[in-house]
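=== Structure Prediction Worksheet ===
Name of assembly: unnamed complex
Input type: mixed (protein and possibly other molecules)
Chain count: two
Listed entries:
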Amino acid sequence: MKLMETPHISSILKSIEKPGRYIGGEYNRIMKDVDAVKCRFAFAFPDTYEIGMSNLGVRILYDVLNKDPDVWCERVYAPWTDMLEKMKEYSIPLTTQESGDELGCFDLIGFSLQYELCYTTALAMMKMAGIPIFTKDREESCPIIIGGGPCVYNPEPIADFFDVINVGEGEEVLLEICHLYIDMKERGEYTRAAFLRAASGIEGVYVPSLYDVIYNDDGTIREFVPKYDELPRRIKKRIIEDLDTVSYPEKLVMPYIETVHDRIVLEIYRGCIRGCRFCQAGMVYRPIREKSPEVLSKCARCLYDSTGYDEISLISLSISDYSKLRELTDSLLEWTDEANVSLSLPSLRIDSFSEELMQKVSSVRTGGITFAPEAGTQRLRDVINKNVTEEDLMRSVGIAFRGGKSNVKLYFMNGLPTETEEDIKGIADLAGSVVREYYRMPKEERPRGVGVTISVSCFVPKPFTPFQWEKQDSYETLMEKQEYLKACITDRKKIRYTYHDAKVSRLEAVFARGDRRLAPAIALAVEEGMIFDAWEEYFDYDKWVDIFARCGIDIDFYTTRGFALDEVLPWDIIDCGVTKEFLLRERERAYAEKTTPSCKEHCNGCGANKLGGKNRWCPQWHGKGGDEE
Amino acid sequence: MNNTPINLRIKFKKVGTLQYISHLDLVRTMHKIVTRARLPLWYTEGFNPKPKMVFAAPLSIGTESVCEFMDLRLSERCDTEWAIRSLNENMTDELVVLDAYYPETKHTDLKWLGYTIEIDTLGASADLADRCNAAFLSESIRVNKKAKLGGAEMEIKPLIKSAVAEYRDGRIYLECILSADASAFLNPEYVVKYLKGSVGILSSENLFSEGYSIFRHSAYKGDMSPFA
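=== Predicted Assembly ===
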């Protein structure tokens, strides 16, 4: 039954928070005739409506799939726990926003896996839809369950739950999967098994159930064994060759309720030239590919006309590295000022922050600005290849203060490889220097009430980074480090200190570096009602510890254990472009406290150039090899 | 460019699932609609310019309406037929502009609002409707202002111009005209609440078997002539 046809749905919706999450009917949503399409695709986001609606990947793929007349892509989000309880009590199934149809009647369901702690929510959504969570338990009539997004660079912890994994950018792959499905259905060749085997032939598709994993006695992986000869030994990530010609939404589904990023988001480029050694996004989204200012400007105007948003946010991993930033902002400002539309930039590098840039982005809406030095000393910043100096930071905060900003937020990480007490104290010292920089200004020029916030997260070793082998600090060590930093901060009035819960980071590390043996634990957690692990109010570390123990899983194996350099890693089955040789070289340079120049200055031979791509910084690709050092 | 700004009054309906959208979210939504519609908007001064919109008697969640009023400030006059068309091209079928005109009244001239409340309760009958009507004849009609017991009691009798219950097709239909005065606005939810307490409607805990809907359909000035 459709949600809105439920008897007295009004009583239920009036008894819960934010009923607007569940009503659908948004302006610009895509409606199609069920009988006129050949493939029904549900795009599932395993978090709340407000978060899912803000996700750029969902916006892009919803648009791409719906531009195909044979496919109807609809959206579904995780109901918040108050609604979830009502749905259980009154046996209301999980339905999509557009048609209001139950998930079970769709052909394909694609889950966007943006962060590790969404796994239980994704599985809980399958359960709500009456779909068995394990691939092996699904019957012929079950929808095909697809997983994609940044988490699938290590798909192994969730390998037993997903029929198909889409590795890399989804614009082309998802359509190919849909059309394979349509073709096999039309030719009468469709069975789940036949489809999955055929899908494994699409570049960028991993079908985990077609591989066996064999383990060594010490618990590490010995090898991945494909069940058929034709299967790829490693699954190569897909990328979009030319971002100027790939489809980008001309309109956006307009939420009635306020969402997290309720604005136009312009993706400027993919990839990153920097190579911070802890950062997974900076590695797995390579090679860098830029969009031209002309295309972006046109796109922005078109989205403004179709949405009426009064804010445009320019996003990419490091916006100031865009080679044509001035042309872009100039061409946007030609019309945005008059239309009362403001520009915003979420990520700014300290070394490229300028007065001109700050004036262009109408930053008057917030009194604050955020920078990410990540580490407290130059030594440790060199280890992580952050390539910014204290002088860069002081220059940037100086500009910010003169520009009327009084609140500066600084992001740091605790527990980075080689970190010492001196590095931790350096965080407090750096914040102190920022405060002093403020007082160095003539009194009449200062904005009122300086405040510096230090926000400290915990290092999580991530797949496909030079630090992928590193051990994570134990919980106790991380807590001691947090306490030590607190003690180092003397100016409690001007400097605010916030830190992430180390328990969360520990669980993230388990999922980030885990393997297939985690599946029973994740399934048990879902069985026992765990959901929304990413939400503080539902994160229950002790329960997770208990569940892992009951499943015979040693958390330390995935967290505080340093992985051997020659060990088969769970994510070795994926080829993200960047080679292991490059990551090893970068790891050595980290321990030697040596920085690596950005791709703009020098090709470091990461290997991602072999994937192709237009408008990139890489040297010309000659058709083979990656390491051109 | 020193045109005097002028108010355009927009009468619209907000029905169906849009009853679950809060007033604040409606304001945000309207802001985008009027932008998309390319109306000659007047923007507030300052660092963060916004179009200026004023709503009469905001709806609470769970009430549908076919007589909502919003005054939108324009920098210059525009054709009202064009404005209606342009707005409706940018709205969905549950949020629709019914009329647009340059008003002669103020929002404060709106004194009364007419509602139909449809109640699907266990034990609905002509007798139950009679008991509802009897309850409205009481000298004093008091309800708790808060959801919890022990909150401040409020006398709402003077805020009810009229209230008539009728039994039809297994349901109770309540026609009422309630105060819309800004200083003494009566939320129709209180009328339902009063009947819950005094007559015992909607007493089951099962959200599936009982329910009610509220529909705002008319607006009046102090002399009971239609507000426009």
